[in-house]
Amino acid sequence: MDLKKMLSEKLIELLLAYLCEQGEGDLCKLSNPEWKALLRLSTYHGVAPLFYHRLSHAGAQVPDGVLNALCKAYHGNVFQNAQYYHELSEVLKQLQRIDVIVLKGAYLAKTVYQSQALRFIGDIDLLVKKADLEQAEKILLEMGYGPTERPSIKAQCASHHLETFTKKGAFSIDIHWTLIKPEAPFKIMPDSLWEQARPFTVEDIQVLTLSPEDLLFHLCVHTAYSSRFFGIRFLCDIHNTIRSHEIDWEILFHRARQWKGEKTVYLVLSLARDWLATSVPEKVLEQFKPDDFNLELLAKTKEIITKDINPRVGENFARLWKPNKPFREKLLIFLKRIFLPPDELAEIYHAPKKSLRLYFYYPVRLKKYLVSYSGAVWRGLRSDKEKQVFMTQNERIAMLMDWMKSN
């Protein structure tokens, strides 16, 4: 039996029912291939530790092979997160000279889940004020993180965080100055985040975290825009954040409207309420419902999540790589995204328009696209069934992106 075809909405709903403790689905009738599909799905979306915890507490009868794999994922995450918080505390000790907001996983695992072992955390995400970026970079370089050869702070601010800091045997660190890429359709004002920030403690170190409304806004736009709806884990974050915090819905939607993210927040919250039975009041959804919202948007979002595909090509590629385009035309599109005119490069990387340094960014862009998108690009250039499925997924995402950005 084809496991890809088994990653159906039914199995995802069963998984979500356990992850979000919304009643217990009927696991007794699952076949071994279906159990393996659930294992693969929970691993793929980074929720295997949480799934193991929920199954254990429910006393569910799980095939030994699946249970052992989930148990291994859980205990592996216990060890990894213990290392994570130790390293995070060491970093925060050194950054105490500046204000720091701890973002996403590091905050969520400690607060909205019963145990920090239940939430998989990838890297360390911290928000600092733009004026403090240079000092934060200096401190991390002194701690042995690299690379030491880095673009100017101004050039790095073309993104929403500095170039990732890495060190052998350590977690990657992203120092953000805002929540999402500057080219995104959202108009986030970082100063407002700092005004509403709340105290937070990591290993006896006093830092800050986002207000509940700003946290929920961040999770919604990250789920929809940055992760392109690849995120059962992020849906669980949203569900548990709402369950654990008292949300001022007026403030949330005022923020969302002000920052051009109202449709995005509404779509993600509607999905969470419809699919996870998340406690979003019906009157809230009625009050803030966009005029052009319809149930087809929810259906398309579910289709994206239930497909066993994680497309990494951006929406521009999704729109341009339509079926029946000749290979040469597709390749030209890809090359044009790398070899931009010097004036565009100067704007993106904040470099002087006449500087020879601009030509350094061509190999930088080539490496970025080859590392990040090579597999997806190859599928897009081929003409086979895999490509068609891949492109259909991207077209769904592009349609939702267009709707979320429309006024």
Automatic annotation (TrEMBL):
InterPro entries: NTP_transf_5 (IPR039498). It comes from the Bacteria. Gene3D superfamilies: 3.30.460.40. This is Nucleotidyltransferase family protein. It comes from Candidatus Thiomargarita nelsonii.
